[in-house]
Write a sequence for this structure.
């Protein structure tokens, strides 16, 4: 089964985007192999707000993969290069997980992460902590949220930029 992985950069104070949705504070560490990381994925999940921000930068569809935008308001007819998924998102995600392929990148954002995690769809949380304090913005997970128990699987310190990479497995609740 394909995994859904929440891979995201975050400020030290817990934000994945600044107060105006900006992400210019995310430093690109020369020791992080983004090409190798991207090779692990062939499907991308975005929430509406993240989609609108990235499409404003002409990055709506992710390269070398299929992009799904989870939204109750966007219309498929307005967006040729991505698949808009509405109320049936649970069935779509389950089907994607069962298909052959690489892992699925939950690209954003905090609201979509909360919804998917609460339904048991997120397998890992992979955070690159950038050494900056933003003081506000879009949080890693939108409040209110249920507790999500995690187990640390890996960590890396990138000395050149001070970025810290953390990889956690999401602990699935035990079934009675």
């Amino acid at each position: 089964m394909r995994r859904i992985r929440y891979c995201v950069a975050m400020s030290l104070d817990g934000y994945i985007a600044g107060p105006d949705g900006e992400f210019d504070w995310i430093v690109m560490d020369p020791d992080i192999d983004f090409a190798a990381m991207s090779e692990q994925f062939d499907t991308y999940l975005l929430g509406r707000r993240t989609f609108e921000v990235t499409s404003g930068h002409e990055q709506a569809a992710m390269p070398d993969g299929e992009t799904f935008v989870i939204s109750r308001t966007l219309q498929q007819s307005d967006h040729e290069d991505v698949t808009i998924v509405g109320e049936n998102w649970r069935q779509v995600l389950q089907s994607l997980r069962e298909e052959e392929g690489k892992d699925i990148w939950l690209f954003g954002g905090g609201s979509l992460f909360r919804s998917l995690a609460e339904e048991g769809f997120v397998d890992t949380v992979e955070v690159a902590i950038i050494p900056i304090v933003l003081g506000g913005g879009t949080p890693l997970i939108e409040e209110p949220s249920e507790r999500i128990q995690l187990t640390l699987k890996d960590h890396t310190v990138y000395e050149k930029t001070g970025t810290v990479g953390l990889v956690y497995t999401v602990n699935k609740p035990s079934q009675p």
In short: The longest helix spans residues 89-98. Helices lie at 34-38, 48-55, 89-98, 110-118. The mean pLDDT is 90.
